[in-house]
Amino acid sequence: MIEAKTTEIKMTEAKTTEAKRPTINWMDVLWLVLLALLAVLPPVREYHKQLILLAFGILQLNEGWLIARTPKRGDAYIVLLKIALATLLLDHTGEIPINSYYYPIYYLPAVTAAEYFGPWATLFWTSLASVAYCSYLYPALQEYEITGEDYGRLAIRIVFFFLAAMVVNRFVVESRRQTQRYQELAATLAETNRRLEQAQAEARRSERLAALGQLSAGLAHEIRNPLGVIKGSAEMLTQKLGDSNPLATELSGYISTETNRLSALVTRFLDFARPLHADLTPQDITAILDRALHDVAQFWKGSPVRVEKEYQPGLPLVPLDESLSEQAFVNIVQNSYDAMAPNGGQLRVSVRKSRTGDRNDDRAGGMVDGVEVRIDDSGPGIPLELREQIFNPFVTTKKTGVGLGLSIVSKIIDGHHGTIRIEAPDNFADEKAAGEPGSNVAGPGAHFVIFLPAANEQSAVGKSAHLVIS
Q1: What is the pLDDT of residue 429?
Q2: Domain residue spans in the chain?
Q3: What is the pTM of this model?
């Protein structure tokens, strides 16, 4: 725990160091003005003093540049240089350097250390500056007699070095903590905004689904009755004509076939529009996934598809309607198989424990434990412009079909209080290159990520719940 806090403080200090003024600002101008005032104070004709003050000014102006060039030790170099310059300044501003009126110049390295380092390092650098100041005590003892009162005044000066350094350091450390709190608050607000935008998108999608569902139900009901009449008439026509008119028999067969296709389409509309009755019981989601994979593979007649499964052990049970959830997984897997139909490919299914935020759950800070299912294929993927609308009705990448499969999947997952999304490929450059003429880059593939909340302690013992998904 202590090591983690130390690392965090160092990272914060590094960020503060990097953010140190890279250009001249009003504080640098103020430093230069104060140094210029010292330059016009006695002794004025001591050119060594003027050169040292000039060196102080140059160092102050280039402080940010030096730290940027040597980020690991730049701050230490700056404090050392200021201690050295302060020591030289005292040597050229008084007959007895330790009695020089310029001794407060040691506040500069002490305050600089307090700005860049933590409390213990600040004490170290202030001690080093005090030792440099006290180094002039030995030559003074060779020529003068120093009384106890003089030692007291020297001790007072050194104590004030430490007091100034620690006061500044406390302010700097508190400022860093406040900055860190603001950064954490900003990150929390950004995450909250992201969840709010996601919730708004889901609400808009639900509204569109509800409106289209009502429209689809009305149209499907009105279309189904005429289709029944057309199909019955075509079958009666086939029976009456028999072999007497082969052309009419063939045409009536076409009518019957197309009527069956339209009837199946109407059935899908009704499946999308009508409320779904779900009986949720705690289930092992991997067993349902295995059945869905087996169902699709059993009737697949296209190019071979290699399936890889990666199931994390010890997965929690998930409240599911067995039939509806299997239907949702079958739709997604079937889409992946269809996408890889021309050349075959690889389908990877992984399941692991996960935790995500739930705006409807206040427990544990709104975090909900559950299971994450990832279904990745190596097909051509979903175009960028369709990823936001792919779960809307009538949006499809297939040449055939009406685009209701993923809408039904989204409806089922939402009804189970879960989420479904599409992730972009890891390598966006490969995604852009895929499909271009003469390109050897494989397709980016589609990456579906489904989160379903785990069963709580009450439902995990085998209780079931009836749910109407509208």
Answers
A1: 40
A2: 2-146, 276-469
A3: 0.48
